[in-house]
Amino acid sequence: MKKGLWTKNFTIITIGTIISSIGGVAMNFALSFVVFDNSGSTLLMGIYSALSLIPTVVLPIVIAPYLDRYKRKPFIVGLDFLNGLLYLGFAFLISKIGFVFGVYLAFSLTTATIGTIYQQAYTSYYPNLIPKGFAQKGYTVSSMIYPTVNVVITPLASYLYTQMGIEFIMVFEGIMLLVASLFEAMIDYRETQHGSGRFDLQAYREQFRAGWQFLKKEKGLQKIYAYMPIMQGLSEGSSSLIIAYFQTTPGLGITLYSLFTIAEFLGRSIGGIVHYRYEIPAKKRFRFACIVYYIYPLMDALLLWLAYPLMLLNRSICGFLGINSATLRESSVQNYMPDENRAKLNAFFHVAYSLVSMFCRFTAGALGEILDYRFCLMLFAAIEIFSCTWIIYRNQELVKPIYNQNY
Fold first, then answer.
1. Which of these, 240, 264, 319, 332, lies nearest to 53 by C-alpha position?
2. Do 36 and 243 form a contact (C-beta atoms < 8 A)?
3. Membrane spanning segments where (predicted)?
């Protein structure tokens, strides 16, 4: 067997993820603007964004025990293929009827349902494809995929959106998902099946209870699962306001916003290369992550008060720090959890994240109607700093063993 990180299975899942991300970046970029462009309302944009998360609140808990009992690869391959067909079909539909808020929302709910199941399967399956001893490097690679694709595709998506419309981008996304499913089908990792091959309600309940009991006794995981949804939810709420700020501020606009993402990419790229080549010593991981958790919201609070060149510098610093802390957290948490409970524990996190994110997106949209976008970002940053102090820093003796473990 080939030694090192780049085994056949890891290479295939990386290629599949890259292909899927190419279409996903273009699609997410277009959807970020299409509702605001057609309504001019941050509130409606916030409502749309929040309601689109409804499936992510319910489904992870429902599907997770099943995913921990049975094979995850069929979900990954089949759902990418199905989602690709849906995007192609929706592109044809909107080419005939144009923008209808309810239709867009129904489509988002459908794709969010499929995407939620897919994400649960992917997150639980991915650690098994990383060779033992290469967790940090493996998660550094995965953390680099989205920002790298983002900087390459976002300017292209900006052009395609303004020149050819969202229908073309949806066709592009559909094709990318179909191609990704073909690559994922070539993975030959043999999964351990913990179930009998048929659905068993009693076994399902026992699986769910086992995951919950494990989380109840893991106080450190509880703190991480409490803080991370707050941090990510506030970040997503801030992102929608940043988009609105660029759209409504003279001298900025969609093109500069697409270029704005390049600065964060450059920071993430440099950070990813550094993290890939030089691992942070185990005993220093928690301290480093905690420092980032304080710096990031401070940078967000300052962002919209800066001249555009300083905004670029701001995002570069955040990109550099963000990818390192995200890689540390993901590799630490995923390796800390036993494989038979990983999908359930990830489900608990995703449900918490979705609930907080829905609230933050709606709140951001509502606040954006009555307050200056810059003051909104400052408020969110203050909440994030307080949450980090109260949840993570005060309980560092519980959280440290997870971050500072050897793997």
1. 240
2. yes
3. 12-36, 42-63, 75-93, 99-118, 139-162, 168-187, 252-274, 286-308, 347-368, 375-393
The structural domains of the chain, ordered by start, are 8-185+202-403 (1.20.1250.20)
Count CB-CB contacts under 10 A for residue 309: 9
Give CA separation, 315 vs 35, 118, 379, in Å. 25, 30, 19
Runs of H (alpha helix) within 165-284: 166-184, 201-217, 219-248, 254-277
pLDDT one digit per residue (tens) for the chain, 407 residues: 446 778 888 888 888 888 877 766 667 667 767 777 777 676 777 777 777 777 776 676 667 666 666 777 888 888 889 888 988 998 899 888 877 878 888 888 888 788 778 877 887 788 778 887 777 677 777 777 776 776 677 677 777 777 877 888 888 888 888 888 888 888 887 766 555 445 455 655 665 666 677 777 888 888 888 888 888 888 878 887 887 888 788 878 777 777 777 787 778 778 777 767 777 777 888 888 888 889 989 998 998 898 888 988 998 888 888 777 777 777 777 777 776 666 667 777 777 777 787 788 778 878 888 888 889 889 999 999 999 999 888 888 888 888 887 75
Tokens of 12: 């295939």
Q: CA 209 → CA 122, 181, 195, 202, 298, distances in Å?
A: 22, 33, 15, 11, 40
Running DSSP on this structure, what letter comes out for residue 107?
A: H
Distances from the Cα of 134 to the Cαs of 1, 5, 6, 58, 329, in angstroms? Answer: 15, 6, 10, 33, 15
Terminal-to-terminal C-alpha distance of the chain: 21
Q: How far apart are CA 321 and CA 300, in angstroms?
A: 13
The dihedral region occupied by 131, where left means phi > 0, alpha psi between -120 and 50, and beta the remainder, is beta
Give the chain's radius of gyration (CA, Å). 21
Q: Is 185 left (phi over 0), alpha (psi -120 to 50) or beta?
A: alpha
Nearest alpha-carbon partner for 55 in 143, 145, 115:
115
